Amino acid sequence: MNKYDTGIARFFANIFDTTLFIPVAFLDRFILTENKPLSLVIIWILISNCLLIAYNLYFHTKNGQTLGKRLMGIVVLDVTEQRYLTLKQAFLRDSIYILFQIGTVFLIVIRLFSIGNYSESSISTYNLYLSYFSLIWLFVEIINMLTNKKRRAFHDFLGTSVVVKFR
User: Where does the chain cross the membrane (predicted)?
Assistant: First the structure.
């Protein structure tokens, strides 16, 4: 058993972690309506977009595992495999996604201020760009994982981390 063969477990861990945020999507449907004050919409967009980032940073520094990773029997460690990630490492590990997320939120907020109200169509282009970026980034990560012995994805190199099986 190769402790670095974690690709499938990572995939399912990510799906599990994403499902934890379904309540946020339901709140989006309630809060992001055209009759809500623009200030509430902007505050909610900022909060909701920071939740997944905070979730990953917290759990990767606390015990190396999100709830999905724990369920799938994998852990994120420093590349030395002797300790959990520092906050800096966890931040660097997610930095590409964080930067794109911040950029998207920034563009959405500017757009909302420029039109003066919220409508789903006013930000749909930005959400589409985020979806495209996520898909492209996924392919880059998979290709990178397949090219090295420890199955480190690009974000693992950024955060000097490695994902291993712990069972």
Answer: 12-32, 38-59, 96-114, 126-146
Domain presence at residue 2: no
Q: What are phi and psi of 78, to 5 degrees?
A: -60, 150
Domain span holding position 130? 7-165
Q: Which residue shows structure tokens 């460690």?
A: 77
Q: How far is CA 30 from the centre of its chain?
A: 23
Quick check: pTM over 0.70?
yes
The identity of residue 8, as a single letter, is I
pLDDT tens digit string along 67-79?
999 999 999 999 9
Domain for residue 75, yes or no? yes
Residue 1 lies in a domain: no
- H helices of 74-153, in order, are 87-93, 95-115, 120-145
Instruction: Say how many domains are in the chain.
Output: 1
CB 89 within 8 A of CB 71: no
Residues 6+ apart with CB under 8 A from 136: none
Contact 86, 61 (CB under 8 A): yes
Domain assignment present for residue 70? The answer is: yes
Give Cα 122 distance to the centre of its chain: 23
Neighbours of 163 (CB within 10 A): 25
Report pLDDT for 120: 67
